Every structure is written in structure tokens, then in C-alpha cells.
Amino acid sequence: MTRPLKVALLGCGTVGTAVLRLLDEQAADLTARIGRPVEVAGVAVRRPDRHPDVPAHLLTTDAHGLVTRPDVDLVVEVIGGIEPVRSLMLAAFEAGKSVVSANKALLADDGGELHAAAAKAGVDLYYEAAVAGAIPLLRPLRESLAGDQLRRVVGIVNGTTNYILSRMAETGHGFTEALAEATELGYAEADPTADVDGFDAAAKAAILASLAFHTSVTASDVYREGISAVTSTDVARAAEIDCTVKLLAICERVGRVGDGAAGDGDGDGDSVAVRVHPAMIPTAHPLAAVGGAFNAVFVEAEAAGQLMFYGQGAGGEPTASAVLGDLVAVARNRVAGTAGPGVTTYAGLPARPIAETPTRYHVSLDVADKPGVLATVAQEFARHGVSIATVRQDGHGDAATLVIVTHSAPDAALSATVAALREMPAVRGVTSILRVEGLS
Ligand code: HSE
After folding, report:
1. I want to staple 223 with a disulfide (CB 3.0 to 4.6 A). Which of 107, 181, 200, 354 is the partner?
2. CB of 181 closer than 8 Å to CB of 172
3. 248 and 222 in one domain?
4. Does residue 366 share a domain with residue 322?
5. How far is the CA of 233 from the centre of ligand 1 (A)?
6. CA dist 167 to 93, 172, 235, 241, 244, Å?
7. Is the domain of 118 the same as that of 148?
8. pLDDT by residue (tens digit) across 7-27?
9. Are residues 381 and 286 in the same domain?
10. Pocket test for ligand 1, best of 101, 158, 319 (most atoms within 8 A of CB)
11. Active site residues
12. Are residues 164 and 186 both part of a single domain?
């Protein structure tokens, strides 16, 4: 057996600790699977005194020195954030090291430059753990589905918000109470902004869209709405039409304006629409059954049809599983003296703004129950070119609730319709508006 492959670990929080433990416990199996032993060369942390369980001789505060050390072959990055990680990764590539990362924010921001640097150095950049934790998803998109044409990738990629929305549906509680419960039970961070406002899901959506559509998509291309405005009324209205509310990351290839929701097949004039927002989905949809803090991603491809990936999207051990899977892959490549497949962005599809993206709305209105009101409301939809799919009226005294689900229309037309409805004298209140996905 030749010399061990040496790994530099950057960061030693929950995931890093689990990576170290699994590397130790599974050393014999990993050696057999890779063809060479894997040894930890060093662990870069900010405060060595906070890591009493890591052998002291491995700990260092000099991350740059560690990643460029001549005996280091592979780098595992679980620090997170943009800097100093970006510079450390570029230094690692320049020094000929492959990198495994769990860093969604950096990959969603700068994936193009990092991939180019890895390719130039002839090394690997793998980041399965960056999206949906333990779920094997990025390599299936990068490799297994590389011969197919992807149409849509729709996922629940944030466990915190899925837990909150699931509890709202189960208990009838509002967002604030459900968030408080999630915080108390440790599902939500002390500062839940990145999760509840959709930033975490938007970064993941950018990575998914880039891989699915061979196009460079960054987090700034992603339309984003979080869940803090979702009310118990929204959740109740969803249940009335056999739907449930989920925060969805939706990546789709769409045809020219006016061609409808899907790319038209010739690819000419297609663009990529990537968005994160709460939506009602039918309870019969496979994603509706994804409860608690679990993640799932639904993929629609031309030849493969519909695929579903499901599992734990966060946590030390599940995320470490994805990191180690990547580590084995890049270590095997290193042993073979090669690098794995990179990512391609040859399609270069433009990003479609949300205003031009076809969506469907569910609108619930409190109105006066008298002749002509339904006609005036319907007229407002028609004026904006929005076709109504279903209307339901529940009467109560001189008032009524109108529940309207539209057909697909450009999002700007739908939001303009809602703005106009709010101004109508006959409309006493707009009590619930949510986009709807997955209805036939
Ligand atoms: N905070 C994320 C979630 C996990 O709630 O799913 C890490 O991406």
C-alpha cells in the first residue's frame, strides 16, 4: 500500500466533528474503497481551545498554510460563508488539491469562477452536502442525468421552514407560534432569517438550476419570498382545496413569453426561471407528504420522466455522509491520477424575471354578497388577461368569501390583478393570496 492520502479539514463544527469521527470509525472500509488509506493532516479552526476532542497536534489556526502544505492531497471545507473560504479554495486549487465543500452560499455566488479554477488546475470540486444534506442529488444531476434534458427541478430544500409550515398545518397555529416552537426544539436557529426569509433555499436553488440546465445561475438570479407572511388562513384555505403550503425552490426551463410553462423542445428562445416562495400544492403531490424537517426534490426530465429524491437535509451525521461520499469520489480520482467530470455552462440560458414567469394564483376575497359583484371581480381578472380556473363562493349574511384559482399567467399580470382587486369597493378584504403549483 502506498502512502496515505492526506486530508486538510477546514472547520470543525457539527459537520466537521462528524466527518472526523466517521473517518476514524470507517478507516478500514474507506481504505478498501479508495485503494489507499486516508489520514487527517490537520484541522483549521479559529479557536483551538474549543476543540478538546481533536488531537492537539492536528489543530491549527493557519488555514492557508494547511491547504497549501505539500503533503496535503485533499481539502474538506465545512466553515461556510464567502470569505476567507473563497480565497482558501482558490489557494488549494492553485496548489493542486481537490476540494470537497458543503458551502451553498459560496457555490451559489461564485460557482463559475471556482469550477474554472478547479478545471484549470486539473482537480475536483464536489459539494453534494451543500444542497439537501444527505440526499444524493447533485451528482445524479451532474452525472446520472447528464444524458437527459431536464425540464423542472422542484424541491423542499429547507428543513426549518418545512418544519414550521408542517406544524402550522397540524396545529392551526400562526407563523409566529410555529417559529417559537421550532426555535425551542432546536429546529430553527436563534437568528432564523436565512431560513425563514428563503435565502438558504435560494442559494440551493441557484446550485440546482446551474447543474440542471448547464447554465450559470447565481443566488441573485433567484426570485425569493420567505414564509413569514404565510398565515393560518392561508394554510386553512389550502386545506379547503385539498392542498398544503410548502416553501418551494422551483427551477424550470421555460419557453418564449407566451409559449406556456415548459420549454417548447427546440430550445430556441428558452430561458431559466428560478424562484423560491411559499405555494399551495395538492395533497396528492409527492412533495406534500414531506413533513417535519425533511427535504425532498422532484425532478422532471424528458426521458427519465419524474424522479423523487427524499431524506434528511441537515444535521451533522447526514451532512457528513454526503461530505464523505464526495471525499471517496475525489480520493478515488486522485488515486487514478485523474479528475472527475466538471460542470458545463454551455447552454448559457438567460434568467427569466419573475414578472414574466408563468405562475398560478389562489386568491381569497371577502366581498359584498350582492348582484354583479362576482361579475366585476371576474372582469378585473379578464382585464389583466388572467383566465380563471375555478371559483367557489361561501355565503354568510350580506357578505361572502370568493375563492378563485387562476390558470397560468405571467406573474406580473397576476399581481396587478390582486392590486386592482384590493382597490375595488365591492372587495372588503383580500384574505389570502398564494401561488399554486402542481395542479393539473
Ligand atoms: N438551515 C438549513 C435547513 C440546513 O433548515 O434546512 C442547512 O442548509
Report:
1. 354
2. no
3. yes
4. no
5. 26
6. 44, 8, 10, 19, 12
7. no
8. 999 999 999 999 999 999 999
9. no
10. 158
11. 204
12. yes
